[in-house]
Design brief:
Strand order of the largest sheet: 2-3-8-5-7-6
Number of domains: 4
Keywords: Cell membrane, Membrane, Transmembrane, Transmembrane helix
Organism: Sphingomonas swuensis
Number of strands: 21
Pfam families: FtsX (PF02687), MacB_PCD (PF12704)
Radius of gyration: 33 Å
Domain MacB-like periplasmic core: 24-186
Helix content: 40-55%
Domain ABC3 transporter permease C-terminal: 250-367, 705-816
Oligomer: single chain
C-alpha cells in the first residue's frame, strides 16, 4: 500500500497527463447535480423548518361552504387554541378599476402560530379596515389610508402585507385581510357562496398531531372536513418543487452520464501516457496492484478536487436563487449548505468516476512491459474481471437514483430510455465507422484521409457519437416541448379561452346578470352552469380518511372539489364507459367521473361515491366515466351529478363570457362590480400571464440544466480529440513531408469531423423530436407545435459547435514543425 502511494506521489509530480478532461467533466456535472438537489432541498428545508408558521398552527381543519357547528366548535376547542378564518375569492374595486383578490376574514389573535409580516402599516382594527398584499398595493399604487371596496364593504387600507401563513403555497390572487365583522359587511358569504372556513389550532406544548385530524374526521364523518398537518404545509409548493427537482435531477444525471464518457477517455489517455513508466517499474519488480494504486490515487485525487469544486458551486445556488428570484417563489430557499444534497451529489459523481475509470486503469496496470519497451502499440486485452467493479458502481448509481426519486416509475423509464439512446448512438457510431471504411477508396485524397480517420485504430468515433448524440437529443427534446407549451399558452389558449370567468353569481340574480351582459357585452357568447363545492368523503362506503395514502393521480380526493349537475353531456366531454343519463332523469343519485381519476382509484361502473355538500353526505352510484378535454376552456368538472340531487342545495352560478375578438370587457366588469359586487371576475389573460411566468422560469432552469449537458459534451469532444494528439501530430508531419499544406491537413480533419457530426446530429434531431412529440401529445395531451425554425437551427448549430470545437482541439497538432516533431515522435 505504501509503495503504491509513494509511486503515486512521485508520478503526480510530473503532471496530470490527460486528466484535465476528467476534472472539467466531473466538476461541471457535480456542480449541476449539487445545484439542482441543493435548491430543492433548501426549499423543502424552509418548509419543514417553518411548517408551523407557514400553516399558522400545528394543525388546520377546514370545511367548504359552511362554518363549524356548535358541536364541532366545542370539539375544536378541546384540541387547543383555535383561530378561525373564512376565505374566498372576490373582486376588489380600486377607483374605477377591478382586481381579483383572495379575501380572508380573520378572528381575533389570528393566526394560531406564526404571524403576519407587514411591510408597512398595521393589521386591521375594526370592520372598516383591511390589510392588503404587496402585489395589489404596487399594482394600483395603494398605501395606508387608501380606499378599497370589496363586495358591499368599504374599507381603508391599514397595512401592506409582506408575508402571511399560506398552507397551499402558491396563490393566484393577492391577499386581503379583514376581521370577521368586516367580512360580514361585504355580504359575500351567503348560502351557496364558494368559501372555505379554516380553523388553525395551536396544540398544548409537547402535544403531537399524530392521529388528531383523522380522529376529528371520524367523529364528524359527514362534515366534509379536510385536515392539513404541519408535514403538509405549503403542499402545492412542496409538490411543485419535488416534481420540478426530479425533472432537473434526471437532466443533471444525464449530463453526468455523458461526462462518464469523457472521464473514461481521460483516464484512458492518462493510462496511455504512463505506459513507459509502468513498463519500467514492472521491470524493476513493481506489482500490478501497486501500479493500480499509483494510477488510481492520481485519478482519485483529481476526482476529489473536481467534486469539491462542483460542490462549492452548487452550495451557493440556493442563496443566489433566493436573492435573484425570491419574490417569484412562495417560500425563500434556505441559504445554508444542504449537506445531504451535497453528499448525494458527491456520491453520484464518485460512483460514476469509479465505473468509468476502473477498466482502463486495471488494463494499464496489467500490461506486459516487453511490448511497450519495444515501442509496440498497446496490446493489453480486457478481462471480464475488469467489468465487475464498473458494473457494481453503475448498479449503485441506478439504485441511488431510484432511492432518491419521488416518482420511481418515471426515473426508471428515463434510465432505460437513456441506455436505449446510448446504445442507438453507439450503433450509429459503429455503422458510421464501417461505412467510412467501405467508402475509404472513393473521393479525392483529402476525403479519403478524412474518412479513414473515422475507422483507424484508436478512433473515438463511437464514444463521440454517444456523447454528442445524447446531449443534442436532450436539447432538441426540451426545445420541442418548451416551444409547444409556449405556443399553446401564447396563442391557442388566448384564442380559444373566454375573456372572463365569473364566480359566485347568486342563482336568484341570474336574470339580472344576463340583462347586464346583454347590455354591456351584446355579442358575447355567455354560458352559465350551477356550481357547488364539497369533498369526496367515501368510496364504496369506505371513508377517505381511512386511506393510508392518496394514490398518485387521485387528485379528486385532495380537498374540496367543484361540483355541478347537468342534464346534457357538457361540450368537450365524451363518455368512454357506462351511459349518460336521460335529460329528464328522475331517480336515485347518479354521478359521472373523470376517467383518469377513476382509474387511479380503481373504481368501476356501479361503485359508489360519497360527497359532502354543506356537511350533508350524498352517496351516488357511478353511472359513467368521461374523458375531458381540459383545453376546451369551458366548465370542466371531474364530478357531475345527474338532475334531481343537488338542485335543493344552496348553489351559485359560474359564467364565462367570450366577446368578439378585439372587444373590451372593462365597461362590463365595472358595471358588474357596481350592480352585483358579490360576483368574482377572473380575467383569463391574467391567469395565463401568471402561469406563463412560472413556466418561463421553469423553462429557463431546464435550459440551464441542458446547457450543462451540452457543455460536458463539448468538453468530451475536445478531450477526445486532444487525446489523439500524438497520432494526429504524426499524421500531420508525414503529410507535410510528402508536400501537404497546413490548409490541406486541416481540410482533411474538417471532413472527418463533418462526416461524424453530420450523421449523429441528424439522428439526434430525429430522436429528440420524437421524444418531444411523445411527451407533448401523450403526456401533456397538447398538439405538437414547436417553433420549427428554431428547432431546425439546433442541429445546424450543434454541428458547427462540434466541428469548431474539434478543429480547435486539433490545431496544436497541426502547427507542429516537421523537424521538431521528428525528434519527439
Amino acid at each position: 500500500m505504501s509503495a503504491g502511494l509513494t509511486l503515486a506521489r512521485r508520478d503526480l509530480a510530473g503532471g496530470i497527463g490527460g486528466l484535465w478532461l476528467l476534472f472539467v467533466c466531473l466538476a461541471i456535472a457535480v456542480a449541476g447535480l449539487a445545484a439542482v438537489t441543493s435548491l430543492a432541498s433548501s426549499i423543502r428545508s424552509t418548509i419543514d423548518g417553518n411548517a408551523r408558521e407557514l400553516l399558522g398552527g400545528d394543525l388546520s381543519l377546514s370545511v367548504a361552504q359552511r362554518s363549524a357547528t356548535a358541536q364541532e366548535r366545542l370539539a375544536l376547542a378541546e384540541l387547543g387554541t383555535v383561530r378561525e378564518s373564512i376565505t374566498l375569492r372576490s373582486t376588489a374595486q380600486v377607483a374605477d378599476q377591478t382586481a381579483l383578490v383572495e379575501l380572508s376574514g380573520i378572528g381575533r389573535g389570528w393566526p394560531a402560530a406564526g404571524q403576519v409580516t407587514l411591510a408597512s402599516g398595521r393589521m386591521p382594527q375594526g370592520p372598516a379596515e383591511a390589510a392588503i398584499g404587496r402585489e395589489l398595493a404596487e399594482r394600483y399604487d395603494l398605501r395606508a389610508g387608501s380606499p378599497l371596496v370589496v363586495g358591499f364593504g368599504r374599507f381603508t387600507v391599514s397595512g401592506i402585507i409582506a408575508d402571511l401563513p399560506a398552507p397551499s403555497g402558491f396563490a393566484l390572487a393577492p391577499p386581503v385581510l379583514v376581521d370577521l365583522d368586516g367580512l360580514a359587511a361585504t355580504g359575500l358569504v351567503q348560502p351557496g357562496s364558494l368559501y372555505t372556513s379554516s380553523y388553525r389550532i395551536a396544540l398544548p406544548a409537547g402535544a403531537s398531531t399524530d392521529g388528531i385530524g383523522p380522529a376529528f374526521q371520524k367523529r364528524f364523518p359527514d362534515g366534509g372536513w379536510r385536515v392539513t398537518e404541519k408535514a403538509d404545509a405549503a403542499g402545492g409548493t412542496r409538490r411543485f418543487t419535488d416534481r420540478t427537482g426530479q425533472m432537473l435531477l434526471l437532466i443533471a444525471l444525464g449530463a453526468l452520464g455523458i461526462g462518464s464518457i469523457g472521464i473514461a477517455s481521460a483516464v484512458g489517455a492518462f493510462a496511455a501516457s504512463r505506459r513507459s513508466t509502468i513498463a519500467i517499474l514492472k521491470v524493476h519488480g513493481a506489482r500490478s496492484r501497486d501500479l493500480l494504486l499509483m494510477l488510481g490515487s492520481s485519478v482519485t485525487l483529481l476526482a476529489l478536487a473536481a467534486t469539491a469544486v462542483g460542490l462549492l458551486i452548487g452550495a451557493f445556488v440556493p442563496s443566489i436563487v433566493g436573492q435573484a428570484a425570491g419574490d417569484l417563489l412562495p417560500v425563500t430557499p434556505d441559504p445554508r449548505p444542504q449537506w445531504g444534497a451535497l453528499g448525494q451529489s458527491a456520491l453520484f459523481g464518485l460512483l460514476v468516476t469509479l465505473a468509468a475509470a476502473w477498466a482502463p486503469l486495471a488494463r494499464a496496470a496489467r500490461a506486459r512491459p516487453a511490448p511497450t519497451l519495444r515501442g509496440d502499440l498497446d496490446d493489453s486485452a480486457g478481462s471480464w474481471r475488469d467489468l465487475i467493479v464498473p458494473l457494481a458502481a453503475g448498479a449503485a448509481v441506478i439504485g441511488l437514483a431510484l432511492m432518491t426519486s419521488e416518482r420511481i416509475a418515471i426515473t426508471l423509464s428515463a434510465i432505460v430510455g437513456g441506455f436505449v439512446l446510448a446504445a442507438l448512438f453507439a450503433a450509429a457510431g459503429w455503422l458510421l465507422a464501417r461505412t467510412a471504411r467501405a467508402a475509404g477508396g472513393r473521393g479525392g485524397p483529402l476525403t479519403r484521409l478524412g474518412l479513414a480517420a473515422l475507422h483507424r485504430p484508436g478512433a473515438a468515433t463511437i464514444r463521440l457519437s454517444v456523447a454528442l448524440g445524447l446531449g443534442l437529443s436532450l436539447l432538441v427534446a426540451l426545445a420541442g416541448i418548451g416551444g409547444s407549451v409556449r405556443q399553446e399558452l401564447g396563442g391557442s389558449i388566448p384564442a380559444k379561452a373566454p375573456a372572463l370567468f365569473m364566480l359566485d353569481i347568486p342563482a336568484n340574480e341570474e336574470a339580472h346578470f344576463r340583462a347586464l351582459a346583454a347590455e354591456r357585452l351584446p355579442d358575447a357568447d355567455l354560458r352559465l352552469v350551477p356550481s357547488l363545492r364539497g369533498p369526496v368523503t367515501a368510496l364504496n362506503g369506505q371513508p377517505v380518511s381511512a386511506l393510508k395514502a392518496i394514490p398518485e393521480g387521485a387528485w379528486i380526493l385532495r380537498g374540496d372539489r367543484g361540483l355541478t349537475f347537468a342534464a346534457e353531456l357538457p361540450v368537450g366531454n365524451e363518455v368512454v364507459e357506462g351511459r349518460w343519463w336521460p335529460a329528464d332523469y328522475k331517480g336515485p343519485p347518479l354521478v359521472s367521473l373523470d376517467v383518469e381519476a377513476a382509474r387511479a382509484l380503481n373504481l368501476k361502473i356501479g361503485d359508489t361515491l360519497t360527497v359532502a355538500v354543506l356537511g350533508v353526505p350524498i352517496e351516488a352510484r357511478i353511472a359513467s366515466f368521461r374523458t375531458i378535454d381540459w383545453r376546451s376552456f369551458g366548465f370542466n368538472f371531474a364530478i357531475i351529478f345527474a338532475p334531481g340531487t343537488l338542485e335543493s342545495a344552496p348553489y351559485t352560478l359560474m359564467a364565462t363570457a367570450a366577446p368578439p375578438k378585439g372587444s373590451s370587457t372593462i365597461a362590463f366588469e365595472r358595471a358588474l362590480a357596481q350592480a352585483l359586487p358579490m360576483v368574482s371576475t377572473i380575467r383569463v389573460s391574467d391567469v395565463v400571464s401568471r402561469v406563463t411566468a412560472i413556466l418561463e422560469g421553469l423553462d429557463a432552469a431546464i435550459r440551464l440544466a441542458t446547457a450543462v449537458a451540452i457543455l460536458i459534451g463539448v468538453a468530451v469532444l475536445a478531450g477526445a480529440v486532444t487525446a489523439t494528439r500524438r497520432t494526429r501530430m504524426r499524421e500531420s508531419v508525414l503529410l507535410k513531408l510528402v508536400g501537404a499544406t497546413r490548409g490541406q491537413v486541416l481540410a482533411a480533419q474538417a471532413i472527418e469531423f463533418l462526416a461524424m457530426s453530420g450523421g449523429i446530429v441528424a439522428l439526434a434531431f430525429l430522436a429528440g423530436t420524437a421524444a418531444a412529440w411523445g411527451v407533448v401529445t401523450q403526456l401533456f395531451d397538447l398538439p405538437f407545435r414547436p417553433d420549427w425554425p428554431s428547432l431546425l437551427l439546433l442541429p445546424i448549430a450543434g454541428m458547427v459547435v462540434a466541428v469548431a470545437t474539434a478543429l480547435l482541439a486539433a490545431w496544436p497538432a497541426l502547427r507542429v514543425r516537421p523537424a521538431t516533431a521528428l525528434r519527439t515522435v
